[in-house]
Write a structure and sequence with these properties.
It contains three helices and five strands. The chain is α/β, with parallel strands linked by helices. It has one domain. The strands form two sheets. Strands 1-2-3 form a three-stranded parallel β-sheet. Strands 4-5 form a two-stranded antiparallel ribbon. Helix 3 links the parallel strand 2 and strand 3 (66-67). Helix 1 runs parallel beside helix 2 (27-34). The chain is globular, with a radius of gyration of 13 Å.
Length: 89
C-alpha cells in the first residue's frame, strides 16, 4: 500500500518541497522516488535523538534531500521562499 502511494505521488507531482514520514520503514524508498527538498523524520516515540542519527545516515548515503532533525518535542520550523528555518526556542 505504502509503495503504491509513493508511486502515485511521484507520477503526479512536479516537485516536492517538504516530506514528513515515519522512520520505521519505507523512508529510503520514499526519498529516492519523491526527491523532496527537505525531509522531516517523525513518529519515533519520544526518541528525537533518532532523527539526528537518521540525518547523519542520509548524508552518508548521499540521499538527495536535506533532513531536518527536530531535537525536542515542540520544535517549530518556518518554510518560506524555498528556505526552511528553525523558529522559537
Amino acid at each position: 500500500m505504502y509503495k503504491n502511494n509513493i508511486e502515485y505521488l511521484a507520477a503526479n507531482s512536479e516537485k516536492i518541497d517538504l516530506a514528513f514520514f515515519p522512520t520505521f520503514g519505507g523512508h529510503y524508498y520514499m526519498i529516492e522516488k519523491l526527491k523532496p527538498t527537505y525531509s522531516f523524520p517523525m513518529h519515533d516515540g519520544g526518541r528525537e535523538l533518532q532523527y539526528k542519527k537518521f540525518a547523519e545516515r542520509a548524508d552518508r548515503l548521499k540521499l538527495k534531500t536535506k533532513v531536518i532533525d527536530a531535537t525536542a518535542n515542540g520544535d517549530a520550523f518556518l518554510f518560506k521562499d524555498g528556505i526552511i528555518k528553525k523558529i522559537g526556542q
